[in-house]
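Worked Example 4.2. Read the sequence first, then its C-alpha coordinates.
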Amino acid sequence: MVGHELVVNGPSHSSRFVAVFEDDGETGYFYALDRALDPEPVIDALHIYNVVDVSDRNVPSHFQLVWSGDGLKVALFINRYPHAAFDFIKKRGYCRTGFPPPHASFSSEGHDWDDSVLSFFK
Protein backbone atom coordinates (compact mmCIF):
# COMPACT_ATOMS: atom_id res chain seq x y z
CA MET A 1 0.00 0.00 0.00
CA VAL A 2 1.35 3.39 -0.96
CA GLY A 3 2.12 5.33 2.21
CA HIS A 4 2.96 2.24 4.26
CA GLU A 5 6.67 1.93 4.96
CA LEU A 6 8.27 -0.41 2.46
CA VAL A 7 11.75 -1.19 1.14
CA VAL A 8 12.27 -3.29 -1.99
CA ASN A 9 15.92 -4.21 -2.51
CA GLY A 10 17.12 -5.66 -5.81
CA PRO A 11 20.79 -6.48 -6.46
CA SER A 12 21.99 -7.02 -10.02
CA HIS A 13 22.63 -10.66 -10.90
CA SER A 14 25.91 -9.82 -12.66
CA SER A 15 27.33 -6.53 -11.41
CA ARG A 16 28.09 -4.63 -8.21
CA PHE A 17 24.98 -2.45 -8.53
CA VAL A 18 21.83 -2.51 -6.42
CA ALA A 19 18.47 -0.80 -6.87
CA VAL A 20 16.28 0.07 -3.90
CA PHE A 21 12.75 1.44 -3.80
CA GLU A 22 11.66 3.01 -0.51
CA ASP A 23 8.32 4.36 0.64
CA ASP A 24 8.94 6.07 3.98
CA GLY A 25 5.27 6.84 4.57
CA GLU A 26 5.48 10.30 2.99
CA THR A 27 7.40 9.84 -0.28
CA GLY A 28 8.54 7.13 -2.63
CA TYR A 29 12.15 7.19 -3.88
CA PHE A 30 14.18 4.90 -6.13
CA TYR A 31 17.90 4.64 -5.35
CA ALA A 32 20.94 3.47 -7.32
CA LEU A 33 23.71 1.95 -5.22
CA ASP A 34 27.25 0.87 -6.03
CA ARG A 35 28.46 -1.76 -3.57
CA ALA A 36 32.07 -0.81 -4.37
CA LEU A 37 31.58 2.57 -2.69
CA ASP A 38 31.92 2.36 1.04
CA PRO A 39 30.64 3.73 3.39
CA GLU A 40 28.16 5.64 1.15
CA PRO A 41 27.00 3.46 -1.75
CA VAL A 42 24.09 5.67 -2.94
CA ILE A 43 25.01 7.19 -6.30
CA ASP A 44 21.62 8.59 -7.37
CA ALA A 45 18.06 9.04 -6.15
CA LEU A 46 14.82 9.51 -8.08
CA HIS A 47 11.59 10.92 -6.69
CA ILE A 48 8.65 8.66 -7.56
CA TYR A 49 5.73 10.13 -5.63
CA ASN A 50 4.46 12.11 -2.68
CA VAL A 51 1.98 9.90 -0.85
CA VAL A 52 -0.60 12.69 -0.45
CA ASP A 53 -0.69 13.09 -4.25
CA VAL A 54 -1.44 9.42 -5.04
CA SER A 55 -5.19 9.25 -5.65
CA ASP A 56 -5.51 5.47 -5.28
CA ARG A 57 -3.20 5.05 -2.30
CA ASN A 58 -5.88 2.99 -0.52
CA VAL A 59 -5.63 0.27 -3.23
CA PRO A 60 -2.86 -2.35 -2.92
CA SER A 61 0.01 -1.82 -5.37
CA HIS A 62 2.56 -4.22 -6.83
CA PHE A 63 6.17 -2.95 -6.81
CA GLN A 64 8.69 -4.70 -9.06
CA LEU A 65 12.37 -4.15 -9.90
CA VAL A 66 13.31 -5.50 -13.33
CA TRP A 67 16.95 -5.87 -14.40
CA SER A 68 18.13 -6.00 -18.00
CA GLY A 69 19.90 -9.12 -19.23
CA ASP A 70 23.33 -7.53 -18.82
CA GLY A 71 22.60 -6.55 -15.20
CA LEU A 72 23.52 -2.91 -15.86
CA LYS A 73 20.06 -1.37 -16.23
CA VAL A 74 17.09 -1.58 -13.91
CA ALA A 75 13.53 -0.27 -13.91
CA LEU A 76 10.91 0.27 -11.24
CA PHE A 77 7.42 -0.87 -12.21
CA ILE A 78 4.40 -0.10 -10.06
CA ASN A 79 1.32 -2.04 -11.11
CA ARG A 80 3.15 -3.00 -14.33
CA TYR A 81 3.72 0.67 -15.23
CA PRO A 82 7.32 1.92 -15.57
CA HIS A 83 8.01 4.81 -13.20
CA ALA A 84 11.82 5.03 -13.20
CA ALA A 85 15.01 3.45 -14.49
CA PHE A 86 18.76 3.56 -14.03
CA ASP A 87 21.33 2.95 -16.74
CA PHE A 88 24.61 2.28 -14.93
CA ILE A 89 26.61 2.35 -18.18
CA LYS A 90 25.43 5.83 -19.16
CA LYS A 91 25.37 6.91 -15.50
CA ARG A 92 21.83 8.16 -15.91
CA GLY A 93 18.58 7.96 -13.99
CA TYR A 94 15.14 8.53 -15.51
CA CYS A 95 11.86 9.16 -13.74
CA ARG A 96 8.42 10.50 -14.56
CA THR A 97 8.73 13.38 -12.08
CA GLY A 98 12.16 14.51 -13.38
CA PHE A 99 13.10 15.26 -9.77
CA PRO A 100 15.48 15.93 -8.08
CA PRO A 101 17.81 18.21 -10.05
CA PRO A 102 20.86 16.66 -11.73
CA HIS A 103 23.82 15.38 -9.77
CA ALA A 104 27.40 16.14 -10.87
CA SER A 105 28.70 12.57 -11.01
CA PHE A 106 25.54 10.66 -12.01
CA SER A 107 22.59 11.89 -14.10
CA SER A 108 24.34 15.16 -14.89
CA GLU A 109 21.94 15.51 -17.86
CA GLY A 110 18.93 15.42 -15.55
CA HIS A 111 16.32 12.86 -14.56
CA ASP A 112 13.70 13.44 -17.24
CA TRP A 113 11.83 10.36 -18.41
CA ASP A 114 12.52 8.99 -21.88
CA ASP A 115 10.40 6.12 -23.29
CA SER A 116 13.51 4.77 -25.02
CA VAL A 117 14.62 3.28 -21.67
CA LEU A 118 11.93 0.63 -22.11
CA SER A 119 14.04 -0.88 -24.90
CA PHE A 120 16.51 -2.00 -22.19
CA PHE A 121 14.02 -4.63 -21.09
CA LYS A 122 12.93 -6.22 -24.39
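Now turn to a second chain, presented in exactly the same format:
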Amino acid sequence: MKYIHIHPADNVAVALENISKGETVQVKENTGLAAEGLEVTATEDIPRGHKIALCKIPEGGSVIKYGNVIAVAKQDIAPGSWVHTHNVKTQLSEEGEYVYDHKVYEMPAPAPHTFRGYRRDDGRAAIRNELWIIPIVGCVNGVAKQLVEENQDLVKGSIDGLYYFPHPFGCSQLGGDLEQTKKLLAALVKHPNAGGVLCLGLGCENLTLPMFKEALGDVDERRVKFLITQEVEDELESGSALLKELAEYAGKFTREEMPVSELVVGMKCGGSDGLSGITANPTVGRFSDRLIALGGSTVLTEVPEMFGAENILFSRCENEAVFNKAVDMVNDFKKYFTDHGQVVYENPSPGNKDGGITTLEDKSCGCVQKGGSAQVVDVLKYAEPVTKKGLNVLSGPGNDLVSATDLTAAGAHLILFTTGRGTPFGAPAPTVKISTNNALFEKKNNWIDFNAGSVVDGESLDAAGDRLLDYVCEVASGKLTKAEEHGCREISIFKDGVVL
Protein backbone atom coordinates (compact mmCIF):
# COMPACT_ATOMS: atom_id res chain seq x y z
CA MET A 1 0.00 0.00 0.00
CA LYS A 2 1.48 3.33 -1.09
CA TYR A 3 -0.86 5.70 0.68
CA ILE A 4 -3.41 5.94 3.47
CA HIS A 5 -6.69 7.80 3.70
CA ILE A 6 -6.93 8.29 7.46
CA HIS A 7 -10.53 9.51 7.95
CA PRO A 8 -13.53 9.37 5.62
CA ALA A 9 -13.89 13.16 5.78
CA ASP A 10 -10.27 13.81 4.73
CA ASN A 11 -9.66 15.52 1.39
CA VAL A 12 -6.01 14.46 1.39
CA ALA A 13 -4.24 11.11 1.58
CA VAL A 14 -0.76 10.50 2.98
CA ALA A 15 1.95 8.80 0.92
CA LEU A 16 3.37 5.76 2.75
CA GLU A 17 6.01 5.47 0.03
CA ASN A 18 7.17 7.94 -2.62
CA ILE A 19 4.43 8.44 -5.22
CA SER A 20 5.65 9.34 -8.71
CA LYS A 21 3.97 11.78 -11.05
CA GLY A 22 1.37 9.91 -13.11
CA GLU A 23 0.67 7.22 -10.51
CA THR A 24 -2.97 6.64 -9.60
CA VAL A 25 -4.34 6.85 -6.08
CA GLN A 26 -7.57 4.90 -5.56
CA VAL A 27 -9.50 5.50 -2.34
CA LYS A 28 -11.84 2.52 -2.47
CA GLU A 29 -13.77 2.94 0.75
CA ASN A 30 -16.72 5.29 0.90
CA THR A 31 -15.62 8.79 1.74
CA GLY A 32 -17.16 12.14 2.34
CA LEU A 33 -15.88 13.07 -1.13
CA ALA A 34 -17.47 10.33 -3.24
CA ALA A 35 -20.09 7.76 -2.31
CA GLU A 36 -18.28 4.98 -4.19
CA GLY A 37 -14.73 6.08 -3.51
CA LEU A 38 -12.56 8.03 -5.92
CA GLU A 39 -9.47 7.89 -8.09
CA VAL A 40 -6.91 10.63 -8.66
CA THR A 41 -3.66 10.79 -10.60
CA ALA A 42 -0.59 12.42 -9.07
CA THR A 43 0.23 15.58 -11.00
CA GLU A 44 3.71 15.73 -9.43
CA ASP A 45 6.00 13.61 -7.27
CA ILE A 46 4.72 13.19 -3.69
CA PRO A 47 7.42 12.32 -1.10
CA ARG A 48 6.80 9.70 1.57
CA GLY A 49 4.90 11.12 4.52
CA HIS A 50 3.51 14.03 2.48
CA LYS A 51 -0.06 14.71 1.37
CA ILE A 52 -1.81 14.40 -1.99
CA ALA A 53 -5.06 16.26 -2.74
CA LEU A 54 -7.97 13.91 -3.41
CA CYS A 55 -10.24 16.61 -4.85
CA LYS A 56 -10.09 20.28 -5.77
CA ILE A 57 -9.45 22.46 -2.72
CA PRO A 58 -10.31 26.07 -3.59
CA GLU A 59 -8.33 29.05 -2.35
CA GLY A 60 -9.40 29.64 1.25
CA GLY A 61 -10.80 26.12 1.49
CA SER A 62 -10.03 23.75 4.34
CA VAL A 63 -7.44 20.98 4.17
CA ILE A 64 -8.79 18.07 6.22
CA LYS A 65 -6.65 15.29 7.75
CA TYR A 66 -7.48 13.06 10.75
CA GLY A 67 -11.03 14.36 10.23
CA ASN A 68 -9.86 17.81 11.39
CA VAL A 69 -8.96 21.03 9.59
CA ILE A 70 -5.16 21.25 9.53
CA ALA A 71 -4.71 24.19 7.14
CA VAL A 72 -6.36 26.47 4.58
CA ALA A 73 -5.40 26.68 0.91
CA LYS A 74 -3.39 29.74 -0.18
CA GLN A 75 -4.41 29.05 -3.79
CA ASP A 76 -6.58 26.66 -5.77
CA ILE A 77 -5.20 23.13 -5.36
CA ALA A 78 -6.02 20.64 -8.10
CA PRO A 79 -6.72 16.93 -7.45
CA GLY A 80 -3.49 14.93 -7.44
CA SER A 81 -1.38 17.90 -6.29
CA TRP A 82 1.24 17.84 -3.54
CA VAL A 83 -0.26 19.62 -0.50
CA HIS A 84 2.40 21.29 1.62
CA THR A 85 3.79 24.60 2.86
CA HIS A 86 3.98 26.10 -0.65
CA ASN A 87 0.21 26.07 -1.15
CA VAL A 88 -1.40 26.00 2.31
CA LYS A 89 -1.10 27.94 5.59
CA THR A 90 -2.07 27.62 9.23
CA GLN A 91 -5.35 29.02 10.50
CA LEU A 92 -4.15 29.34 14.10
CA SER A 93 -4.08 32.61 15.98
CA GLU A 94 -3.22 33.69 19.50
CA GLU A 95 -6.89 33.73 20.43
CA GLY A 96 -9.01 30.71 21.27
CA GLU A 97 -12.34 30.02 22.91
CA TYR A 98 -12.99 26.69 24.58
CA VAL A 99 -16.26 25.05 25.59
CA TYR A 100 -16.45 21.89 27.69
CA ASP A 101 -18.03 19.20 25.51
CA HIS A 102 -17.45 15.99 27.45
CA LYS A 103 -16.85 12.76 25.52
CA VAL A 104 -16.20 9.26 26.83
CA TYR A 105 -14.81 6.42 24.71
CA GLU A 106 -14.79 2.67 25.29
CA MET A 107 -11.53 1.39 26.75
CA PRO A 108 -9.81 -1.94 25.94
CA ALA A 109 -9.72 -4.92 28.30
CA PRO A 110 -6.16 -6.31 28.08
CA ALA A 111 -4.91 -9.36 29.94
CA PRO A 112 -3.09 -8.65 33.23
CA HIS A 113 0.62 -7.83 32.91
CA THR A 114 3.41 -7.71 35.46
CA PHE A 115 7.03 -6.54 35.59
CA ARG A 116 9.97 -7.17 37.90
CA GLY A 117 10.75 -3.95 39.73
CA TYR A 118 12.17 -2.67 43.01
CA ARG A 119 10.00 -1.92 46.03
CA ARG A 120 11.22 1.21 47.87
CA ASP A 121 10.97 1.61 51.62
CA ASP A 122 8.23 4.21 51.15
CA GLY A 123 6.17 1.71 49.14
CA ARG A 124 6.83 3.13 45.67
CA ALA A 125 7.80 0.97 42.70
CA ALA A 126 11.00 1.54 40.70
CA ILE A 127 12.29 -0.01 37.48
CA ARG A 128 15.98 0.85 38.02
CA ASN A 129 18.14 0.80 41.15
CA GLU A 130 20.73 3.46 40.39
CA LEU A 131 22.95 5.89 42.29
CA TRP A 132 22.50 9.49 41.13
CA ILE A 133 24.60 12.60 41.75
CA ILE A 134 22.50 15.76 41.45
CA PRO A 135 24.56 18.99 41.19
CA ILE A 136 22.73 21.77 43.03
CA VAL A 137 24.74 24.26 40.97
CA GLY A 138 26.53 23.99 37.63
CA CYS A 139 29.91 24.91 39.18
CA VAL A 140 30.32 21.38 40.57
CA ASN A 141 29.55 19.47 37.36
CA GLY A 142 33.22 18.55 36.99
CA VAL A 143 33.42 17.19 40.53
CA ALA A 144 30.29 15.10 39.90
CA LYS A 145 31.88 13.73 36.72
CA GLN A 146 35.05 12.74 38.58
CA LEU A 147 33.07 11.06 41.34
CA VAL A 148 31.17 8.98 38.81
CA GLU A 149 34.35 7.98 36.97
CA GLU A 150 36.24 7.07 40.16
CA ASN A 151 33.46 5.07 41.83
CA GLN A 152 32.29 2.66 39.16
CA ASP A 153 33.32 -0.20 41.45
CA LEU A 154 30.11 0.52 43.39
CA VAL A 155 28.04 -0.69 40.41
CA LYS A 156 27.61 -4.32 41.38
CA GLY A 157 24.98 -6.68 42.70
CA SER A 158 21.55 -5.10 42.31
CA ILE A 159 22.91 -1.58 41.69
CA ASP A 160 22.24 -0.81 38.02
CA GLY A 161 24.51 2.20 37.54
CA LEU A 162 26.06 5.42 38.86
CA TYR A 163 25.21 8.62 36.99
CA TYR A 164 25.32 12.41 37.28
CA PHE A 165 23.22 15.03 35.51
CA PRO A 166 25.12 18.24 34.69
CA HIS A 167 23.36 21.56 34.08
CA PRO A 168 24.46 25.24 34.05
CA PHE A 169 22.05 26.63 36.66
CA GLY A 170 21.54 27.00 40.42
CA CYS A 171 23.28 30.37 40.56
CA SER A 172 22.94 33.77 38.85
CA GLN A 173 19.20 33.17 38.52
CA LEU A 174 16.33 35.23 39.84
CA GLY A 175 12.70 34.70 40.82
CA GLY A 176 10.83 32.17 38.72
CA ASP A 177 13.88 30.65 37.08
CA LEU A 178 15.55 29.89 40.41
CA GLU A 179 12.28 28.36 41.61
CA GLN A 180 12.07 26.23 38.46
CA THR A 181 15.62 24.96 38.96
CA LYS A 182 15.00 24.18 42.63
CA LYS A 183 11.72 22.41 41.89
CA LEU A 184 13.14 20.36 39.02
CA LEU A 185 16.27 19.22 40.85
CA ALA A 186 14.30 18.38 44.00
CA ALA A 187 11.90 16.29 41.92
CA LEU A 188 14.83 14.35 40.42
CA VAL A 189 16.19 13.64 43.91
CA LYS A 190 12.82 12.08 44.79
CA HIS A 191 12.63 9.89 41.67
CA PRO A 192 12.07 6.22 42.59
CA ASN A 193 14.58 4.88 40.04
CA ALA A 194 17.35 6.36 42.20
CA GLY A 195 18.12 3.99 45.06
CA GLY A 196 20.56 6.54 46.48
CA VAL A 197 21.21 10.22 45.72
CA LEU A 198 24.15 12.51 46.48
CA CYS A 199 23.18 16.19 46.32
CA LEU A 200 26.35 18.10 45.46
CA GLY A 201 26.72 21.83 46.11
CA LEU A 202 29.47 24.44 46.06
CA GLY A 203 28.61 26.68 49.01
CA CYS A 204 28.12 30.19 47.63
CA GLU A 205 25.36 29.60 45.06
CA ASN A 206 21.93 31.28 44.98
CA LEU A 207 20.29 27.89 45.44
CA THR A 208 21.52 27.44 49.01
CA LEU A 209 21.48 24.07 50.73
CA PRO A 210 18.84 25.17 53.30
CA MET A 211 16.65 26.40 50.44
CA PHE A 212 17.10 23.13 48.58
CA LYS A 213 16.38 21.03 51.67
CA GLU A 214 13.19 23.01 52.22
CA ALA A 215 12.08 22.14 48.68
CA LEU A 216 12.88 18.47 49.29
CA GLY A 217 10.93 18.22 52.54
CA ASP A 218 11.41 15.11 54.62
CA VAL A 219 13.93 12.67 53.12
CA ASP A 220 15.31 9.31 54.17
CA GLU A 221 18.88 10.14 55.25
CA ARG A 222 19.96 6.62 54.27
CA ARG A 223 18.89 7.36 50.67
CA VAL A 224 19.82 11.06 50.28
CA LYS A 225 23.19 12.57 51.24
CA PHE A 226 24.48 16.15 50.92
CA LEU A 227 27.98 17.49 50.26
CA ILE A 228 29.05 21.16 50.06
CA THR A 229 32.43 21.06 48.38
CA GLN A 230 33.75 24.35 49.81
CA GLU A 231 33.33 22.95 53.32
CA VAL A 232 35.60 19.89 52.98
CA GLU A 233 39.32 19.56 52.33
CA ASP A 234 39.02 16.85 49.68
CA GLU A 235 35.65 16.76 47.91
CA LEU A 236 36.50 13.59 45.99
CA GLU A 237 37.41 11.69 49.13
CA SER A 238 34.34 12.96 50.99
CA GLY A 239 32.04 12.35 48.04
CA SER A 240 33.34 8.81 47.54
CA ALA A 241 32.70 8.02 51.21
CA LEU A 242 29.11 9.22 50.91
CA LEU A 243 28.56 7.27 47.70
CA LYS A 244 29.80 4.13 49.45
CA GLU A 245 27.19 4.64 52.18
CA LEU A 246 24.50 5.15 49.55
CA ALA A 247 25.59 1.99 47.73
CA GLU A 248 25.35 -0.03 50.93
CA TYR A 249 21.78 1.17 51.37
CA ALA A 250 20.68 0.81 47.72
CA GLY A 251 22.30 -2.61 47.40
CA LYS A 252 19.68 -4.19 49.63
CA PHE A 253 16.93 -3.76 47.00
CA THR A 254 16.21 -6.67 44.65
CA ARG A 255 13.68 -7.13 41.86
CA GLU A 256 10.28 -8.62 42.59
CA GLU A 257 7.06 -9.21 40.65
CA MET A 258 4.73 -6.19 40.47
CA PRO A 259 1.50 -5.35 38.59
CA VAL A 260 1.76 -2.83 35.76
CA SER A 261 -0.75 -0.69 37.64
CA GLU A 262 2.29 0.68 39.51
CA LEU A 263 3.92 2.06 36.34
CA VAL A 264 3.99 5.73 35.35
CA VAL A 265 4.98 6.16 31.68
CA GLY A 266 5.81 9.46 29.97
CA MET A 267 4.93 10.06 26.32
CA LYS A 268 6.43 12.51 23.84
CA CYS A 269 7.60 12.84 20.25
CA GLY A 270 10.49 14.47 18.43
CA GLY A 271 11.80 14.65 14.88
CA SER A 272 8.26 13.86 13.74
CA ASP A 273 7.37 13.07 10.14
CA GLY A 274 4.20 12.58 8.11
CA LEU A 275 3.80 9.04 9.47
CA SER A 276 4.05 9.98 13.16
CA GLY A 277 0.30 10.48 13.49
CA ILE A 278 -0.42 7.32 11.49
CA THR A 279 1.90 4.72 13.01
CA ALA A 280 3.95 5.49 16.14
CA ASN A 281 1.78 8.06 17.94
CA PRO A 282 -1.47 6.07 17.72
CA THR A 283 0.48 2.94 18.71
CA VAL A 284 1.54 4.76 21.88
CA GLY A 285 -2.09 5.84 22.30
CA ARG A 286 -3.20 2.21 22.16
CA PHE A 287 -0.51 1.36 24.73
CA SER A 288 -1.65 4.22 26.97
CA ASP A 289 -5.25 3.01 26.92
CA ARG A 290 -4.12 -0.52 27.79
CA LEU A 291 -1.90 0.56 30.67
CA ILE A 292 -4.64 2.80 32.06
CA ALA A 293 -7.21 0.00 31.71
CA LEU A 294 -4.86 -2.10 33.87
CA GLY A 295 -4.71 0.63 36.52
CA GLY A 296 -1.50 2.39 35.47
CA SER A 297 -0.68 6.01 34.66
CA THR A 298 0.59 7.86 31.60
CA VAL A 299 1.78 11.45 31.21
CA LEU A 300 1.51 13.57 28.05
CA THR A 301 3.39 16.87 27.68
CA GLU A 302 4.59 19.29 24.91
CA VAL A 303 1.86 21.92 25.29
CA PRO A 304 2.82 24.02 22.21
CA GLU A 305 2.41 20.89 20.12
CA MET A 306 -1.18 20.59 21.28
CA PHE A 307 -2.12 23.97 19.76
CA GLY A 308 -4.73 23.37 17.10
CA ALA A 309 -5.76 20.00 18.51
CA GLU A 310 -6.27 20.86 22.16
CA ASN A 311 -10.04 20.36 21.93
CA ILE A 312 -9.44 16.67 21.23
CA LEU A 313 -7.92 16.44 24.71
CA PHE A 314 -10.22 18.99 26.35
CA SER A 315 -13.31 16.96 25.43
CA ARG A 316 -11.91 14.01 27.39
CA CYS A 317 -11.27 15.87 30.65
CA GLU A 318 -13.12 13.80 33.23
CA ASN A 319 -14.82 16.84 34.77
CA GLU A 320 -15.09 20.59 34.34
CA ALA A 321 -12.47 21.32 37.00
CA VAL A 322 -9.87 19.36 35.02
CA PHE A 323 -11.07 21.06 31.81
CA ASN A 324 -10.52 24.50 33.37
CA LYS A 325 -6.99 23.53 34.43
CA ALA A 326 -6.28 22.33 30.88
CA VAL A 327 -7.55 25.59 29.35
CA ASP A 328 -5.44 27.61 31.79
CA MET A 329 -2.37 25.53 30.87
CA VAL A 330 -2.80 26.17 27.14
CA ASN A 331 -3.59 29.87 27.58
CA ASP A 332 -0.58 30.32 29.90
CA PHE A 333 1.67 28.82 27.23
CA LYS A 334 0.16 31.06 24.55
CA LYS A 335 0.85 34.03 26.81
CA TYR A 336 4.44 32.82 27.24
CA PHE A 337 4.82 32.99 23.45
CA THR A 338 3.19 36.39 23.02
CA ASP A 339 5.02 37.92 26.00
CA HIS A 340 8.23 37.15 24.11
CA GLY A 341 6.86 38.60 20.88
CA GLN A 342 6.51 35.20 19.22
CA VAL A 343 3.53 33.76 17.33
CA VAL A 344 1.98 30.67 18.88
CA TYR A 345 2.21 28.71 15.64
CA GLU A 346 6.00 29.10 15.11
CA ASN A 347 6.23 25.37 14.61
CA PRO A 348 6.78 22.77 13.04
CA SER A 349 10.56 22.54 12.68
CA PRO A 350 12.41 22.29 9.34
CA GLY A 351 12.89 18.55 9.95
CA ASN A 352 9.16 18.13 10.59
CA LYS A 353 8.38 19.86 7.30
CA ASP A 354 10.88 17.73 5.40
CA GLY A 355 9.09 14.69 6.82
CA GLY A 356 5.68 15.83 5.59
CA ILE A 357 4.20 17.87 8.44
CA THR A 358 2.83 21.12 7.04
CA THR A 359 1.32 23.18 9.86
CA LEU A 360 1.15 23.12 13.63
CA GLU A 361 -2.41 21.81 13.40
CA ASP A 362 -1.11 18.93 11.26
CA LYS A 363 1.59 18.19 13.84
CA SER A 364 -0.73 18.62 16.82
CA CYS A 365 -3.45 16.31 15.51
CA GLY A 366 -0.78 13.63 15.24
CA CYS A 367 0.85 14.53 18.55
CA VAL A 368 -2.26 14.22 20.74
CA GLN A 369 -2.89 10.70 19.47
CA LYS A 370 -0.28 9.55 21.97
CA GLY A 371 -2.97 10.26 24.59
CA GLY A 372 -5.21 7.51 23.23
CA SER A 373 -8.90 7.59 24.19
CA ALA A 374 -8.76 7.70 27.99
CA GLN A 375 -10.16 10.41 30.21
CA VAL A 376 -7.76 13.15 31.32
CA VAL A 377 -7.67 12.85 35.10
CA ASP A 378 -5.28 15.68 35.99
CA VAL A 379 -3.34 18.64 34.61
CA LEU A 380 0.09 19.12 36.19
CA LYS A 381 2.37 22.12 36.43
CA TYR A 382 6.04 21.93 35.39
CA ALA A 383 7.85 19.16 37.33
CA GLU A 384 4.74 18.47 39.44
CA PRO A 385 4.44 14.80 40.45
CA VAL A 386 1.78 12.43 39.16
CA THR A 387 -0.65 11.56 41.96
CA LYS A 388 -3.66 10.20 40.04
CA LYS A 389 -4.04 6.97 38.09
CA GLY A 390 -4.94 7.47 34.45
CA LEU A 391 -3.99 9.97 31.72
CA ASN A 392 -2.24 13.08 33.05
CA VAL A 393 -1.28 16.18 31.03
CA LEU A 394 1.92 17.93 32.11
CA SER A 395 2.80 21.55 31.38
CA GLY A 396 6.06 21.80 29.45
CA PRO A 397 7.51 22.88 26.09
CA GLY A 398 8.09 20.74 23.03
CA ASN A 399 11.91 20.80 23.27
CA ASP A 400 13.01 17.18 23.55
CA LEU A 401 15.50 17.46 26.42
CA VAL A 402 13.42 19.94 28.44
CA SER A 403 10.19 17.98 28.13
CA ALA A 404 11.82 14.58 28.74
CA THR A 405 13.44 15.97 31.90
CA ASP A 406 10.03 17.37 32.89
CA LEU A 407 8.44 13.94 32.43
CA THR A 408 11.15 12.33 34.56
CA ALA A 409 10.62 14.94 37.29
CA ALA A 410 6.89 14.20 37.23
CA GLY A 411 7.76 10.63 38.21
CA ALA A 412 7.73 8.77 34.88
CA HIS A 413 9.52 5.45 35.35
CA LEU A 414 10.27 5.42 31.63
CA ILE A 415 9.52 7.53 28.56
CA LEU A 416 8.12 6.50 25.17
CA PHE A 417 9.61 8.75 22.49
CA THR A 418 8.23 8.50 18.96
CA THR A 419 10.35 9.78 16.08
CA GLY A 420 10.36 9.78 12.30
CA ARG A 421 13.93 11.03 11.93
CA GLY A 422 15.75 9.61 14.94
CA THR A 423 17.70 11.01 17.88
CA PRO A 424 20.25 9.44 20.27
CA PHE A 425 19.47 11.38 23.47
CA GLY A 426 18.11 9.87 26.67
CA ALA A 427 16.48 11.28 29.78
CA PRO A 428 17.40 10.19 33.33
CA ALA A 429 14.45 7.78 33.04
CA PRO A 430 14.91 4.99 30.43
CA THR A 431 13.88 6.46 27.08
CA VAL A 432 12.36 4.08 24.52
CA LYS A 433 12.75 5.31 20.93
CA ILE A 434 9.89 4.29 18.65
CA SER A 435 10.32 4.67 14.89
CA THR A 436 7.43 5.78 12.71
CA ASN A 437 8.80 4.07 9.60
CA ASN A 438 10.73 0.93 8.67
CA ALA A 439 13.54 2.79 6.93
CA LEU A 440 14.53 4.62 10.12
CA PHE A 441 14.39 1.42 12.16
CA GLU A 442 16.70 -0.32 9.70
CA LYS A 443 19.09 2.63 9.28
CA LYS A 444 19.43 3.68 12.93
CA ASN A 445 18.93 0.46 14.86
CA ASN A 446 21.62 1.69 17.27
CA TRP A 447 19.12 4.41 18.31
CA ILE A 448 15.69 2.81 17.84
CA ASP A 449 14.23 0.34 20.34
CA PHE A 450 10.81 -0.39 18.85
CA ASN A 451 9.46 -0.18 15.30
CA ALA A 452 5.92 1.06 14.68
CA GLY A 453 6.57 1.28 10.93
CA SER A 454 5.13 -2.24 10.76
CA VAL A 455 1.69 -0.59 10.82
CA VAL A 456 2.35 0.51 7.24
CA ASP A 457 2.87 -3.15 6.33
CA GLY A 458 -0.51 -4.13 7.72
CA GLU A 459 -0.03 -4.66 11.47
CA SER A 460 -3.10 -3.31 13.25
CA LEU A 461 -2.68 -0.48 15.73
CA ASP A 462 -4.22 -2.69 18.40
CA ALA A 463 -1.62 -5.39 17.74
CA ALA A 464 1.17 -2.80 17.81
CA GLY A 465 -0.20 -1.44 21.09
CA ASP A 466 -0.21 -4.94 22.59
CA ARG A 467 3.35 -5.49 21.40
CA LEU A 468 4.44 -2.17 22.93
CA LEU A 469 2.85 -3.07 26.28
CA ASP A 470 4.86 -6.29 26.31
CA TYR A 471 8.03 -4.37 25.43
CA VAL A 472 7.47 -1.80 28.18
CA CYS A 473 7.20 -4.65 30.69
CA GLU A 474 10.57 -5.94 29.46
CA VAL A 475 12.20 -2.51 29.91
CA ALA A 476 10.57 -2.12 33.32
CA SER A 477 12.06 -5.49 34.25
CA GLY A 478 15.59 -4.41 33.38
CA LYS A 479 16.01 -4.58 29.60
CA LEU A 480 18.25 -1.65 28.65
CA THR A 481 17.16 0.89 26.05
CA LYS A 482 19.59 1.83 23.28
CA ALA A 483 20.15 5.22 24.94
CA GLU A 484 21.06 3.46 28.20
CA GLU A 485 23.43 1.12 26.38
CA HIS A 486 25.25 4.12 24.92
CA GLY A 487 25.28 6.13 28.15
CA CYS A 488 23.01 8.87 26.77
CA ARG A 489 21.43 10.55 29.82
CA GLU A 490 20.85 14.30 29.89
CA ILE A 491 18.73 16.90 31.61
CA SER A 492 17.68 20.38 30.55
CA ILE A 493 15.92 22.88 32.82
CA PHE A 494 13.20 25.21 31.53
CA LYS A 495 14.10 28.89 32.00
CA ASP A 496 12.45 32.17 31.07
CA GLY A 497 14.33 35.04 32.68
CA VAL A 498 17.55 36.89 33.39
CA VAL A 499 20.93 35.25 33.99
CA LEU A 500 23.00 37.59 36.17
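Notes for the reader: The chain is about 25% helix and 20% strand. The chain has a mean pLDDT of 93.
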